Structures
1.
Amino acid sequence: MKIHQFVAESLGDASYLLVSGTEAAVIDPQRDVAPFVKAANAHGATIRYVVETHVHNDYISGGRELAALGAEIVAPAESGLEFPHRQIADGGVLTVGDARVVAVKAPGHTYEHTAYLARDANGAVHGAFTGGALLMGAVGRTDLLGPDHTDQLTRLQWDTAQHLRALVPAPTDVLPTHGAGSFCSTTGADLGRCGPMATELQRNPALATATYQLFHDLHLGSTSPIPGYYRHMAPINRRGARVFGAPPRPAGLDVRGFGSLGADVYRVDVRARGDYATGHLPGTLEIEESDSMLAYFGWLIPFNAPIALVAYDRPQADRVTTDLFRIGYEDVRGYIAAGTIEPPVQLHTVGLAEAASMIRSRSVPVLDVRYAQEHRDIPLPGSRPTPFDEIQVWAQEIDPGPVLVVCASGQRSTMAASYLRRHGIEAIPLMDGGAADLLPLL
């Protein structure tokens, strides 16, 4: 039995390929399925099953893409999928070559959530596919279904962890779907993508905390925002996403073609923010390619709105288009290579010293676009808390400016400034540095 992990850094998620003999199964596949098919072919194996741990809130499953190639989709019995699939209940078994994949009901991240144990012919557990149940040093969020469900799901998540404690041997690897960078995780800490149960017994709050109440308070003690596109994912995954066969590729555009796109097309510059500041096309949003890029797209651009990219080159445009495809933004009209932009517009930015001086003198309003939890952890005197994830709301209340925009590092402040300037507000970002850097200067 061989298990391969595939990490989508832009989502903070992992998919898995289990191969035994001439058969394979893919667990929690991303929508771009070519890497799984290629790896299975390299082993001389056919992908027989797609195995879902839960109905995903953070990306569109590649299950339908693999089903079109002949795989059977297997999902928890309570998933409510509206297309052909095999339901699996607690204790259900799938045969993959000489391996057995055993379903373990594991509610908490969602109600239907199921984990899977990969057992060999002798019954030994070689890996535990835990989805959003046990992560590395964390567990999956229990607040994604709304406050009416949070306490119940948190209790279920605790109970699931205790159940898995008894089923997964200490040396066996825990193989989660969500990890660092995923907004489905309760921590942003990078503690690896997989590791032995023994390590989790020592550090995972759901396993190492003495009582449920202590776990509850720790688990829900800090909050992170929910990306705007999340509310679209589960309905699409239940209904069944459109099958493309391969991720779309954006057309290459020249200056005339880029300029002739309709007013409804969002023009997005995905280069590094420093290059955007040096020169960009008027009216373009700045969303630099990064591990958090997709969440920012979801907060700044309506779901599946038409998009055109400003990128360094074709490879970057293809990468970003594939990432957007993973979350249902399927209408990328094309891209323009940055080297063809003439004449560019520059973005006025400030450094730490100038930003601190502006705050001390109260010469302009200061917008702090960090998330609400960051505001509570490290308040910035003299600023107005304006969480980035709520920008569509509070931006309507901002006067024409000028305004200073700050965040934690400069990434969100530059994006927010580009959004505000697109709406007629003279926004000046602190592009390199953030609130913690400013405090000693105030």
Note: The chain is about 30% helix and 20% strand.
2.
Amino acid sequence: MKIIVFAGGVGTRLWPVSRKNTPKQFEKIIGDKSTLEQTIERLLSLYKPQDIYIATGKRYERIIKKQLSQIPYSNFILEPEMRDVGPAIGLAASILAKKYGDEPLAILWSDHIVKNADVFKKILFLAEETIKRKQTHFIFLAQKPRFANQNMGWIEVGDLKQKKNGVSVYLFKKLIYRPDLSDATLFYNNENFVWNLGYFVTTPNYLCSLFKTFTPDMYVKLEEISQSYGSTMFEKKLKLLYPTLEKISFDDAILVKMKPSNVLVISGDLGWSDVGAWESLKEALTESANDNVTNGKVLLEESHDSLVFNYNDQLVVGIDLNQMLVINTRDVLLVCPKTAVPKIKKLVESLSGTAHEHLA
């Protein structure tokens, strides 16, 4: 199986650690390695370096080379500019289709935590075998829900087809993106709903066929780009055509239009967390919501349900903090309630054109 790990997002909800020039997936937010490095290490215990591809923006080429020296440079797919996830997946799929048309292909992301590596391995291998046996065309990999999460996608599953070693295979019904709290609570209490990780396994040819059917204009341009892959014309074609592709999410371009009958869902407890925002990072690192999470030189007294990350040498002291975030970096100190996380992105966007634009 071939793996494409996507590492191009900006991650403004983890500002001020995650920034345009050094997004969250490249930063050592947890431990002494970036989540990208942790993702690749996990995969290298299962697959060869030449089977792993990295899709990201051209602007991050230097960082990728430094952090992933074990991955061949020829396996880097570098987008000349950001055009959202739809075109990014389309580009990668069209390139791999030229060499590995009907081989299983996994699409994964670089900014997640996976605590239960054994379950991840079982799910990935089962999905690979299912695609090889042509038992379906497309498989979502999912996480058994841990709470009523409003900030991510959910999958409604149909009948259970198979259950073995803590891994379940279901028929697919539909996707639901970022439900309100009441719906998320209903989903959490209903065994027919699981978290959508954004991970899936299919084949390059089938993925390209979806683009051909649902986004024909994009498909034509992607084909023209990929036909030149490996030649001296590739960079020219990529720079000319890729910026003209419609900015559209993969969900809107493809996923919501697929026939449910062509899709399966494999779910288990991967210990998966999306560290896309500070409050989700806190949830991933605690056993109880009331616990505090700290990093660096931090002293808390009479504080609860707070996250304090200190990336400097001075001591950060918090007293009577409740549901607070404190992020102390070299040039920015962020202090806000956990409930204010959605406002971080707006604040970062507002820095454009100001004296603080370099901090975005």
Note: The chain has a mean pLDDT of 92.
3.
Amino acid sequence: MESKTTRKHYIDNIRWTTVILVIVYHAIYMFNSMGILTNLAEPGIPEMDFFAAIVYPWFMVLLFVVAGMSARYSLEKRGSKSFAKDRTVKLLIPSFAIIFIYGWVNGLITDLEIDMFKDAPGEVPGIIKFVIYCMSGIGPLWFARELFFASMLLLLIRKIDKKDKLYELGRKANIIVLLALFAAVWVSSFLLNTPIIEVYRNGIYFFTFFLGYYVFSHEEVTDRLVKWKIPLLIGAVLAGVGYGLLFYGENYTTKECLRHIVTNLYCWMTVLAVIGCFKAWFNKTNAFATYMTKANFAFYVLHYTVMLVYAYLWVRNTEFPLIWHYIVPLAATLITLPLLYEIIKRIPVLRFLILGITKPKEKGEVAAEKVS
């Protein structure tokens, strides 16, 4: 068994790798051909939607599981008050501050594309437009808010379960139990979903966060996934094929898709397989992985607006083939993100409001992961 003080590099690597998947996903989502609302009124290439449809059912669930694991490790080193303060600074404050700092750009570009106020009875005051732009500029920030509320709910449950019985129960989860949890995950996909803004799938996200905390934070449990990594990987692929046969070419964000038993089987098998494979093969680090561990939250909260600006400027000022609509904004975003991160982390106010960092890290210290 690993020591609790040993850094679990595979968790870091899952986190930043998934953030990269999110960035690539958004490069495709912006030009989707499935009728999913985006900020750009621009057609895309239908075949490109395949990647977005394949990752969408599971990549955010994976982040919530990993976040639950990280919450357990964090609370082993600090008290509940310190944890709550840390989550407020690193998650809640940026999730609101960012929409007023630059999130409004998303709304502005949407307005330039579709004229959001064309049906207004008269001229809309600039301040009203700005507020509406900000409110429509949440983008990927929903994850930070969802994670903050899950963390606060966790603190409440910990007060009720003072003897940590749920945690000890989670230690007993063998491979059969881990596979059977799929049924509970599927049921959770029906619960606590917001009726209008469907991205807030509270049931499945809160539940998988708690599974990360109470079950997957045990070394014995993740070691079992390592042992079964190949069968799990095969199972994930087979479930993915079934999901593809059912929903290829359809809107993968609808409740009919996301609540389907096959979609949730594919989601859960993939989560189990990724954790097992990463712990077996990627529980190590290097200079690049260490940098990405530090920068992953910045990349997450910055990427969408940056990409949207590049995409808007590109599609409205060039006449290249459609494939370049994906390539150029994505490449430009990946080049810009490290530059922006290096600038922002050196400006105290922005470092605090955007990245949730209260003070510079000591040389050689790995920054605490924000998307955790």
Note: Residues 9-26+49-284 form one domain.
4.
Amino acid sequence: MSDGAQPSGRGPSLHTLSVGTAGPRVAFLHGLFGQGRNWSQIAKALAGPGGDGARSTLVDLPDHGRSPWTEEFSFTAYADAVAATLRGIDADARWMVVGHSLGGKTAMLLALRHPELVARLVVVDIAPKSYGSLDRFSGYIAEMERLPLDDLTSRGDAEARFEEPNRGVKAFLMQNLRRDGDTWHWQANLGLFSADAAKGTGSVIAGWPDAAADLAPYDGPVLWIAGSESEYIRDEDLPAMQALFPKVRQLTVKGASHWVHTDAPEVVVEALRRFVRPLAETS
């Protein structure tokens, strides 16, 4: 594979890639319309030159990448699917779990529902709250739905027809477009996300499950990374975060947007190295 990551199989449910050969177990969870491989460069840096700094598993969440689709979105189902996948890879391991945005909410619920699996938790630019709706993504979804898949002749043709002006966003979304013979399809479960976006303020994806309030707080160390230029984390979100994750500490990355690990990879890598170090020392 061009990103240097090696397939480690589907495990019991979800598709994964592995990076690194030894060291603490680290799992990476991507955001909406992402894929596990979006974390490849961070994972390779964390593994180090010899590959023994950390063993990372890059997970394709349900409805994304090469993982199975679901009929109804559920953070609980996402978290449980990740838990089953991690247990299938190493039944005895306790993992440092890193999640961004949608993956961050999944990671938080994973730690709350399966604390025995999670030695340390890293949440990237998301809070345990409802964001109201998927308005930020509705335009992307509509644009993806407008692309005439039956008429495409090549990837270049698809890119020319896809009108998103931001080159980075365009590349991020277009990674979901796949060709099978003469036919094209979206790898992400676009229909599911479109239906959820149509719910407006009732969006499940933009929300936070009420059932989380009934779960015991996660008592492991938590690193909460925010982008200084992002609006996803606000000062008033701290009490809710502390209630669920009492050992949380926050890192705000100057000049970074919601995609903190893309805007400031060196800062994120260094933060993860420091945070995973206690696991390396005890392994």
Note: The two ends are 30 Å apart (CA to CA).
